[in-house]
Amino acid sequence: GGEAPDAAPAWWRGPQRQRLLELAAEATPRYVYHLPTVRQQARELKSLAAVDRLHYAVKANTHPAILATLAAEGFAFECVSPGELEAVAAIVPESVPLLFTPNFAPRRDYVSALATRATVTLDAMYPLERWGELFRGHEIVLRVDLGRGLGHHEKVRTGGSGSKFGLPLDQLSTFLQLADAHGVTVRGLHAHLGSGVLDAAHWGEVYAQLSSLAERIGSVAFLNIGGGLGVPSHPGEVRLDVAELDRVLREVKAAYPHYQLWMEPGRYLVADAGVLLARATQQKGKGAFRYLGIDTGMNSLIRPALYDAWHEIINLSRLDEPATALYQVVGPICESGDVLGTDRRLPEAQEDDVILIAQAGAYGKVMSSHYNLRDEADEVVIDA
Ligand code: LLP
Fold this sequence. Notes:
With about 375 residues, the chain is α/β, with parallel strands linked by helices. Helices cover about 30% and strands about 25% of the residues.
């Protein structure tokens, strides 16, 4: 790999830069989403010939314009809470399929989801054991734990020991008996091992494993091999090879042609489409470090603090100036973890410079908080 991340061409470097400077002059902090980039990512995944249905994992970004854009691109939707189901129902046409994929949800969530058109995923025995009457006569999806997890950080791995997700395979036959006893049909199998995966081979392995499990369960019609498609963020990471992903999936499909293949990506569709705009505040030299303050922090974007995530940081006011300073870029929140980027080579900044934090379209605004009662970033959509 090279020095810069092997990412999609950054839309904010081009003609949109002036627009972003104007938007930042009106207000910061502010998220800006670029819909053409969402469409471009959507169409790339739509080119996966092996995949029969793509669901957008709504948790990554719930902005109505993004939901509408992905519905128009032919996406179905995956939701994890009644709130997400409502947000989607308010925007997308009734004909669009929905998945409800909760984890340790209260009984009331299943009651409300079963009253919608959503297909419900179970990932434990408990709902059938205790609330079996709710599911009688329904077709459900079973999420299994294939015994391993993957992803960009330990906290986003959703399989294997130590993860709370999925039914362990040694409980599968008991689950199937229970389903049978309650008049419930297991129509789909689901596995999602984690988030931020760049190796295409992973989904082929999951697909093959689910296919062979499905062979043991007569009623299965579709296999949902999850989301988790990563985007390169850290310098040196290489893009997920979508053509290779299709090749890998087609190979499995040739061996098990009788199941529909579903996926549910979130990040891949929206990460590069979003930026967080902030403004430079104070600077300080202390010990070996130079700190550059900006007017928002972990309250708007928690990923660096939570996962040590790397987001590219740009001084948009000085795009053409040499990067002669080495900064720790920090926010105004009263925690030492309120660092958005460490050791960043940037031009010498001035107060009020517009600072852009890239790849903030996924798991940015949706994970933000009112911490310290700082103003929340608002959201602006641009579509040209
Ligand atoms: N399906 C299921 C069952 C999931 O749990 C998730 C994400 C997805 C699909 C979508 O994954 P994606 O394609 O976006 O990787 N906040 C973390 C990511 C947590 C993902 C949680 N589940 C982050 O900012 O990296």
